[in-house]
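Deliverable D2.4 — example input (structure tokens):
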């Protein structure tokens, strides 16, 4: 364990250190097979007496089952099926900000998705609200700021970038009094290259206000025990009265900036599946490759040279015989059953996104109750994203000379059910409408209720357009039939 120096900005909060293994496991499972294969010793135990080459062959003989990554991907899809949006009463300044919240052209909903992903992957993430550096910002009017492109912007901060923090209860609210984030300084290296020198950005909240400092690692020092110099600050932040960092809790909050990945148990199951699969594939490669055995060989000092293939010949001496030895193919059945059981367990923990038993007879009420239980964690994570976005907009408001209370509310989808129609049901409804067994209006209403058509679509307009198209199609068909009949009559005459 590396000894930390509490007098250096590189000192890491013990709670962050304690979560390193959980977050590394989560990130590796999201990245998939390549990430697990790149560091197999971290995820796969060695067999007793197994040498390194044999261990690496076993570790890389199988791929990672994608249950964990798929569950996170599906979670994002559900929450962002209806993108986060500002309240209809949002002031023009916030509408303009929401169209490009990070200075890279990303709208609020686009920016929010990776923040939400980080929260699910690591348990916690955040948004730093920053403002371009200017001399005496208090003297810059709002009109001047807009004319010069001076506006707040959002910076995505994953858990791995949060080094240290302190918090205190001020009144009824728990607020950050210290926040240390990783930072980097890019320097040219030769005509084309560059190097990145590590550093830190340090925010402090005092009775006088909020300040920010930038620290840079000294060139040539080792990563462990490195020395750092403050190269900027402390500089007062004009606007927010608190450190402008909005926290997104994707997992259950245990303390300020402390939350485990919400699907950690699914991660363990997924890793267990990989371990059984690695053993299974290794033993399968042995069991499925017959070994040539020569019995009663009469010259032990000169063993036979064996080449396997249809055009090869083994010359035997005296009563010697050759045969293949092969393991019992049923010997691997136990590991196959184990993997199947693990996949079922992952399906249950993965919010019913994997291997759901569609054949099971369930009532509609039962499905809704199952969905409510499955999505409870996801809804909580979506609530955390909503709080984070609204908090960040509040900091942006203070940077723009307004009150945090002037920031608009943000709508984030936090409830989910199984009412979305599947492809088979959509096809069946369409066939009924084509056969005129249901009306076009009924079809449209069912599609909108099943979340295939957006709630924003005007069904009256869609019905009118559909009926008009049907009328044109009917008229064209009747004209074609009349023309065919006339041609047949003329030919018969």
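Example output (designed residues):
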């Amino acid at each position: 364990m590396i000894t930390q120096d509490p007098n250096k900005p590189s000192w890491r909060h013990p709670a962050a250190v304690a979560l390193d293994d959980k977050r590394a496991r989560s990130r590796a499972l999201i990245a998939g097979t390549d990430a697990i294969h790149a560091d197999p010793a971290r995820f796969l135990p060695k067999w007793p007496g197994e040498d390194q080459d044999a261990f690496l062959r076993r570790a890389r003989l199988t791929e990672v089952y994608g249950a964990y990554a798929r569950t996170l991907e599906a979670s994002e899809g559900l929450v962002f099926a209806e993108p986060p949006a500002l309240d209809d009463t949002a002031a023009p300044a916030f509408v303009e900000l929401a169209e490009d919240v990070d200075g890279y052209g990303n709208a609020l909903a686009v920016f929010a998705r990776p923040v939400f992903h980080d929260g699910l992957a690591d348990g916690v993430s955040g948004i730093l609200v920053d403002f371009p550096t200017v001399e005496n910002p208090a003297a810059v009017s709002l009109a001047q700021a807009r004319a010069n492109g001076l506006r707040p912007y959002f910076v995505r901060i994953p858990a791995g970038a949060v080094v240290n923090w302190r918090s205190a209860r001020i009144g009824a609210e728990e607020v950050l009094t210290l926040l240390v984030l990783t930072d980097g300084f890019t320097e040219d290296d030769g005509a084309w290259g560059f190097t990145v020198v590590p550093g830190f950005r340090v925010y402090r909240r005092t009775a006088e206000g909020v300040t920010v400092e930038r620290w840079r690692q000294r060139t040539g020092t080792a990563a462990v025990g490195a020395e750092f110099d403050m190269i900027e600050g402390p500089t007062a932040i004009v606007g927010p009265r608190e450190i402008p960092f909005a926290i997104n809790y994707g997992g259950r909050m245990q303390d300020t900036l402390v939350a485990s990945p919400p699907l950690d148990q699914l991660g363990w199951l997924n890793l267990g599946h990989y371990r059984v699969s690695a053993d299974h594939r290794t033993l399968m490669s042995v069991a499925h490759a017959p070994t040539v055995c020569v019995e009663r060989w009469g010259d032990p000092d000169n063993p036979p040279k064996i080449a396997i293939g249809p055009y090869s010949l083994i010359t035997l001496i005296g009563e010697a015989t050759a045969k293949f030895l092969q393991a019992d193919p049923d010997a691997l059945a136990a590991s196959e059953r184990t993997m199947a059981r693990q996949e079922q367990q992952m399906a249950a923990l993965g919010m019913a996104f994997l291997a759901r038993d569609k054949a099971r007879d369930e009532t509609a009420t039962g499905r809704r109750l199952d969905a409510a239980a499955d999505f409870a964690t996801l809804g909580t994570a979506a609530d955390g994203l909503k709080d984070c976005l609204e908090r960040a907009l509040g900091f942006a408001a203070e940077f723009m000379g307004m009150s945090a209370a002037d920031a608009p509310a943000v709508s984030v989808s936090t409830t989910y059910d199984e009412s979305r129609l599947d492809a088979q049901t959509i096809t069946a409804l369409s066939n009924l409408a084509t056969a005129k067994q249901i009306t076009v209006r009924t079809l449209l209403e069912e599609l909108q209720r099943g979340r295939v058509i957006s709630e924003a679509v005007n069904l009256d307009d869609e019905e009118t357009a559909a009926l008009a198209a049907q009328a044109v199609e009917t008229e064209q068909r009747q004209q074609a039939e009349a023309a065919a009949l006339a041609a047949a009559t003329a030919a018969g005459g």
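Residues 459-492 form the longest helix (34 residues).
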